[in-house]
Amino acid sequence: MVAPSKIIMEGPAGMLEGMLHLPDSEPVAIVVVAHPLPTMGGTMDNKIVTTLAKTFAELGFATLRFNFRGVGNSEGVFDSGNGEVEDALAVVQHAREAFGHLPLVLSGFSFGAYVQARVAQHLHPKAHKLVLVGPAVGRFAMPAVPHNTLVIHGEYDEIIPLAGALDWARPQHLPVVVLPEAGHFFHGRLQQLKQIVLHEFNGCRL
Q: What is the pTM of this model?
């Protein structure tokens, strides 16, 4: 993989900072990764976000992780999800301008998963796949998601209980990959998280 590079993008509330992870070869897809709740210290440098970004680059995808408005050097102030959806859509637009209309993957952790589920509603249904880790169901109004969404949750998630995630997934008949004994931040389980994502995408057609 190429070493990640810092980028600055135009956002709806000012400039947004991000990191671009490129594969060694020509990208075959675009991924945008969103971070957890800013008011609880979430940034694009969160270890789950960086694990996802590196994993997607390893798969051959051009991957952008970024700071929502008001985080790090991104301009603006926290907007409880509404403005953050607009931020993510701006990053998607930037990525498409840079790499063309390659298949698009939206990924997020916790609050970032909630944002990406909402972003998906603004995009053509065949234009994306969702990868949601520890989605913040119960804390935010998680929408329904496409049937091919990959949801990964810890059995012992102390912030977003697994029961809540299953209650959200059940009426959608949506599978959930559960990591036994894992908590919200997947301490000591990042390699396992990586392997789940690799297994999901290796050899599949986006």
A: 0.97
